From TrEMBL:
Name of the featured protein: DUF1508 domain-containing protein
Domain of life: Bacteria
Organism of provenance: Nonomuraea longispora
Pfam families linked to this entry: DUF1508
Stored InterPro entries: DUF1508, UPF0339_domain, YegP-like_sf
Phylogenetic lineage: Bacteria, Bacillati, Actinomycetota, Actinomycetes, Streptosporangiales
DUF1508 domain span: 10-57
């Protein structure tokens, strides 16, 4: 299993998603969406784009 997306509502009533790994670690959190449909669309956008996403390291530091 490759993890899961969890949808929740925040204190302002916006829908948010979190991508959570099998070990329970949160890997990414989406912005607040006004509707659940918009939140699910955000998840689908991540699913479509993440497999081909490259790392754009603007930190100026070498990985250690």
């Amino acid at each position: 299993m490759a993890g899961r997306f969890i949808i929740s509502k925040d204190e302002r009533g916006a829908f948010r998603f979190a991508l959570v790994a099998n070990n329970g670690q949160t890997l990414a959190v989406g912005e607040g969406f006004p509707t659940k449909v918009a939140c699910v669309n955000g998840i689908e956008t991540v699913r479509r784009n993440a497999p081909e996403a490259h790392i754009d390291d603007q930190s100026g530091q070498e990985p250690r």
